[in-house]
Please model this.
Amino acid sequence: MMKLHQTVNLSMASRSPRRRLVACLLNVSEARRKDVVENVAKAALCNAEGIQREETTVLNIFNDPDYNRSVITIVASIDSIRDAALSACQKACALIDMRTHAGVHPCMGAVDLVPFYPLGEEVGVKECVQQALAVAHGLTETVYGSSAFLFGWADTPLQRGLAQRRKEMGWFRKTPDLQALRPDVGPQPQKRYGLTGVGASTYVMNCNVTIDTQDITTGRSIAAAIRESTPGGLPGLQVLALPHEGAVELACNVESVKGDPPGHPMDEPWPSFIIEGQPYCHAPASLITARVAELARRRGIGVKGTALVGFTSRECRDLAEIALSQGIGEFWKEQRRIRM
Model:
């Protein structure tokens, strides 16, 4: 879990007026050229004239060269998030060419995923959907040849989840057939840009647990045992087992589930929050790691470590309040003050 040095005090956030904030964890298909990824992040912060946007910050950039994939954590007010996310998407499309992309992680687009998450009760579901749809249409209208599929609240009226939509689009295949796809927004996907997923939902945390083996079959059996769809699996957990730096990594999407946190009072609490009066929570990274470690131990292998890709919902909210109150747009450069 994230720990903070005294130079960053999360209690500051609770004393500030509550902003109407939205997070966009932008996934782009590039990590080996860090200058490119930083240019995408910087595009979120400034308009075409180079003037910094109000109420906008980039909290974190998570690069994985083996996957050749980066996650950029953009947080902005509901009035600024659309322009911030769209500018970053446009920059990514200008700099990343899927015809030359190579990486272990599945992907379909130069901008692979654009999810919007409300950070607190101040922002409603409909507002997030409006921003997601505006970005999907704005991207396909300004970057000729780009296209998008919708998921979550933005996929009306079905509101299909990301995992289902990815399966329908062939995202999990090694070589997706772009010509067979029918995007929700934009033209037939082109190889240059691929296909982008755009949507809105409650917060999704990402954490990756690495097990000390090169046997992908073992990794897949553990992934199957802990994912939500398996009896006894963890609620909200979607898992992929992937080869990674000479080992196997379980890449986990930890979706929030409706209801109060389960578990015994002595257990580590599940991160929780409220959206439109409804309580939500998600499994903590420590529980996922412990479950993986137990399953790995039964197979005679150990766990090498866990990487949290960004933050929990509350950490994201609190750090954004600090960044915005201090006018820090490039907050990811402040990581020297944060120990993960």
